[in-house]
């Protein structure tokens, strides 16, 4: 267990993403919004929680068959694109106050996804060694 991860900037952003996505989900559910809004919020909560657990339990080191930070960057970028479309639509349509609030939380989540992608991109180096088994240059 990496007990320092939740206090790191990446861990704090992951926790914030999960909390804001949960708030957006609750707003969408309370307003009886369309299924796309709630489905996107639920998927964001689940995927962010899984990546948080992956890093928190150090499973990324044990499952080295995939370069997890790069997969996390792809997740953040794709989530940001989906959030841009769906939450702008929710804010523009604003069927009721719950949909509007969920859309605003979704736009905040969009910013957090971009921040997460930038933090992860700064962490990785594509031309350096990745692990202990890689021979030194």
UniProtKB/TrEMBL annotation:
Protein's UniProt keywords contain Membrane: yes
Pfam family, one: MARVEL
Subcellular location: Membrane
Keywords: Membrane, Transmembrane, Transmembrane helix
Membrane topology value: Multi-pass membrane protein
Stretches that traverse the bilayer: 12-31, 37-57, 69-93, 99-121
GO cellular component, one term: membrane
Domain MARVEL: 5-125
KW Metal-binding (keyword) present: no
Matching PANTHER family: CHEMOKINE-LIKE FACTOR, MARVEL-CONTAINING POTENTIAL LIPID RAFT-ASSOCIATED PROTEIN
Name this protein carries in UniProt: Chemokine-like factor
Species for this entry: Eudyptes sclateri (Erect-crested penguin)
């Amino acid at each position: 267990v990496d007990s320092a991860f939740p206090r790191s900037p990446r861990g704090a952003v992951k926790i914030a993403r999960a909390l804001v996505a949960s708030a957006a989900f609750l707003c969408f559910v309370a307003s009886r919004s369309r299924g796309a809004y709630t489905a996107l919020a639920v998927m964001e909560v689940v995927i962010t929680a899984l990546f948080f657990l992956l890093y928190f339990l150090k499973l990324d080191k044990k499952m080295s068959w995939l370069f997890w930070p790069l997969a996390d960057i792809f997740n953040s970028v794709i989530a940001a694109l989906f959030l841009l479309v769906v939450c702008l639509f929710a804010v523009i349509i604003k069927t009721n106050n719950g949909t509007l609030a969920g859309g605003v939380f979704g736009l905040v989540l969009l910013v957090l996804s971009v921040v997460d992608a930038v933090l992860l991109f700064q962490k990785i180096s594509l031309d350096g060694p990745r692990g202990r088994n890689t021979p030194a240059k």
